[in-house]
Write a structure and sequence with these properties.
The N and C termini lie far apart (74 Å). The protein contains 12 helices and 25 strands.
């Protein structure tokens, strides 16, 4: 009796889209291989809370193998992809191995874009990984520690100045969280740092914050951040970043802590398959999310340039990626008919403790109610009961006490603290 070979599905990337596709293919009549450079799935929307010591990395990450342990038809490879040979239906790995497929799902996410100034990345890191978030947390906390004993007023002011570049949801959330950390959470633990010592500056090159939100919610966000003490610079692009400064127009801001939240670009997946890409590197996909003229290769999430019902490119958010992951899994299983259609449940952004904005189309909310919805939505999307419980308890503790339980500086403290000053040399 001849055994029928089951289709082989390779998923590159275990982010929101890739993991959702894997879950939908779990214990189905296909053999699935999930390939990722890291052994964990990461809930990126809450990375800024790791960077500001509100949460610990384990609260927002879970091992990929544990998440998919129940699926006997799925194997996980810890490796990086360096190329795709579409003619041979195979993926080349950095380890030298080759993995063959019948169906390929590219869900490789995005990376930071410095608009041609990659040299800025050394001084203005973004937050796309746990390593990024803990590095930013380390820099912020070290600056506070050095400021506690710094006698020179100019140097102390620079240490207590925090600059966030980019006025989208990530930048707004980061600026609000740093303001609360520096002004309320840590000021009572230090003897020479008061709530008014710290300075947080948010820089946006466009005319308003949160450009993807309605203008009214942008104005409310602007006002809420100013109430937290955040200084906002609109319509002024950053022209220079150094180890201890940011130049914005004619203004020079002296600082030791800079966070980049201004732009992203897709992974190099488009180059692997020789696909047509937009200016940010996203693959221009067909309405069914496959690469044109390559029916068995799907591209989803931040890697895909996919148009919505109104012709605009869908944003690189978790809900988009998850819906695309479900769709391509259904197509592989022969259950999806017609092009992909995204169901928009709205946009959310938080502005610190008890403040957020929510855009649900006809319904637009701000303040405490929007913040509660933001909390529930993010807890719902977290993977695993333990993570949901841990984040809920941490948020409740932070809400009532302003305490930041993950305020830890790891690694050699003395050499890192000295580096804050030596970088300029």
């Amino acid at each position: 009796m001849t055994r029928i070979r089951r289709p082989k599905v390779v998923i590159v990337g275990a982010g929101f889209g890739g993991l959702e596709a894997a879950k939908r293919l779990a214990n189905r009549d296909v053999d699935v291989t999930v390939i990722d450079r890291r052994n964990h799935h990461l809930f990126q929307p809450l990375l800024y809370q790791v960077a500001t010591a509100a949460l610990s990395p384990a609260d927002i990450a879970a091992p990929i193998r544990s998440i998919l342990a129940h699926a006997a038809n799925i194997r996980v490879l810890l490796d990086g992809v360096c190329g795709v040979v579409a003619e041979a239906n195979c993926v080349r790995l950095e380890s030298g191995r080759v993995v063959h497929y019948d169906w390929l799902i590219l869900a490789t996410g995005s990376r930071h874009s410095y608009f041609g100034r990659d040299d800025w990345s050394r001084y203005a890191p973004g937050i796309k990984s746990i390593e990024d978030a803990t590095a930013v947390r380390r820099r912020v906390l070290l600056a506070l520690e050095r400021a506690e004993t710094e006698s020179d007023s100019a140097a102390r002011n620079a240490l207590l100045t925090f600059v966030v570049i980019g006025g989208g949801p990530t930048g707004v959330e980061m600026a609000g969280a740093i303001a609360e950390l520096a002004r309320k959470s840590v000021s009572r633990d230090f003897r020479s740092i008061t709530p008014h010592c710290s300075r947080v500056v948010l820089i946006e090159a466009g005319p308003r914050l949160l450009p993807s939100f309605p203008e009214r919610l942008s104005r409310l966000t602007h006002r809420a951040l100013e109430q937290l003490g955040v200084e906002i610079r609109l319509g002024a692009a950053v022209t220079e970043i150094g180890p201890h400064h940011v130049r914005c127009g004619k203004e020079m801001i002296m600082t030791h802590s800079i966070v980049w939240a201004a732009g992203v670009q897709a992974s190099p997946a488009g180059a692997w398959i020789g696909a047509d890409c937009d200016r940010t590197g996203r693959v221009k996909v067909a309405p069914e999310l496959n690469v044109p003229n390559q029916e068995n290769i799907f591209v989803i999430g931040d890697t895909a340039a996919c148009s919505g019902d109104h012709g605009a490119i869908l944003p690189g958010t978790a809900p988009v990626a998850k819906q695309q992951g479900r769709y391509v899994a259904a197509r592989i299983l022969g259950r999806a008919i017609g092009p992909f259609r995204y169901r928009d449940y709205g946009n959310l952004a938080t502005i610190g403790r008890r403040r957020a904005v929510a855009d649900f189309g006809r319904i637009r909310l701000s303040g405490f109610l929007a913040w509660l919805i933001w909390c529930v939505a993010h807890i719902w999307f977290l993977v695993g009961f333990r993570s949901r419980l841990s984040v809920t308890l941490n948020w409740a503790w932070n809400y009532f006490t302003f305490a930041r339980s993950a305020r830890l500086i790891t690694g050699p403290v003395h050499s890192a603290a000295a580096a804050i000053y030596s970088e300029a040399a």
